[in-house]
Amino acid sequence: MKRRWLPKWVSGFRDRHGKARYRFRRKGQAQYLFKHAPGTEEFRQEYQACLTASEAPKIQPGADKIKPGTFDDLIVRYYRSPDFLDPSPRTQVVYRGVIERWRAKYGSGRVADLETRHVAAMMAEMLPHRTSANMLRKRLSALMAFANRQGEIDKNPVLATKPYRIDGGGFHTWTEPEIALYEAHHPTGTMARLMFDLLLWTGQRGGDVRLLGPNAIQDKRLVITQEKTKVTVSLPILPALAQSILATQTGEDTFLVTTHGKTFTRKGFGNKFRDWCDAAGLPHCSAHGLRKAAARRFAEARCSNQQIKAWTGHTTDSEIARYTAAVDQQLMSDAAAEMLLANLIQRVSQKSSQAPEKG
User: Fold this and answer.
1) What is the distance between the alpha carbons of residues 351 and 188, in angstroms, rounded to a whole number?
2) What radius of gyration do the chain's Cα atoms show?
3) What's the CATH number for 60-167?
4) Cβ distance 198 to 354 under 8 Å?
């Protein structure tokens, strides 16, 4: 008997260009074409999403009776478009959750009937949860942009709405005293410290740090392809991080492992770091806050936005501005004063050298 190497319900085929492709086909679910090759972490995530039906959704009885022109009809087609499929599988799960909760209430409505006032009212219904209301606005805007390109509407009615202002800067950015407090509580050589050091000294998201291991080291650098954006960054391994890795008993595949020697799950990673922060007396601090702290440190070192983006993997200056909002104001104003005085001294010196000699 020929040994099967692909996961259950996955089969391979060649497309009309002769390229190897893979699909998920399971009775009662829609077919799904994989974007990544078997054996990769991305493929594993896609396959898991198919098993849970967040991808390859279950076929509902009577689905063929969906009326054309309704949101039910539009959403089915949207899920098969690049608009929805281009983001990572993890992001798709989040987006689908927002859309499906809205669809349960408004799916039978006609796309052409949606007006700006309707969207504003739907957002208001979600108060006081402003972040959720803004997320719904984004997803509806993307859905209606797709409808516009499909020729079903003349303009996107969501664009005329206004998002709610969100007070605060999101995740708290770690301060230097908080960093010192964690380091004092969790010494070098512990898994708690290694997780902290990987987050701080790489400035990457927890989902990427969780999977970092010896295979990421190339020419004494860490090469990371970010799961969320697919941006690849190549980072020098700074001395503090190198010391932490060498002092800790790491795993074979990933640096960070549980007490049982296994790679942390996404949820387990977050929960464990939460416990370690709480133990250090830092209940308001988080893993993502260390990514912001890394960006803050670069800004305080007078690095340019382009240099910070090369490290964090961000692609726009607006993202960097959001991440570096907690820059030490006193430190930066002192630096500005130094630059101002240096410039004034230079101008006075140039003016003196250009003055005609008295004779």
Assistant:
1) 55
2) 26
3) 1.10.150.130
4) no
pLDDT tens, residue by residue, 64-114: 567 889 999 999 999 999 999 888 887 888 899 999 999 999 999 999 999
State the SS3 of 12-29: EEECCCCCEEEEECCCCE
Q: Are 311 and 323 in contact (CB under 8 A)?
A: no
Residue with tokens 């303009």: 155
Sole residue written with tokens 């009662």: 28
Dihedral angle sign, alpha carbons of residues 160, 166, 172, 175: positive
What mean pLDDT do residues 134-139 have? 96
**Shared fold status for 60-167 and 176-330:** no
Q: Over the range 200-221, which residues count as b (16 or more CB within 10 Å of their CB) and which as e?
A: bbbbbbbbbbbbbbeebeeeee
Cβ-based neighbour number of residue 301 at 10 Å: 11
Q: Which of 95-99, 106-110, 195-199, 348-352 has the lowest mean pLDDT?
A: 348-352
The fold of the 176-330 domain, in CATH, is hpI Integrase; Chain A (1.10.443)
CA distance 110 to 353: 77
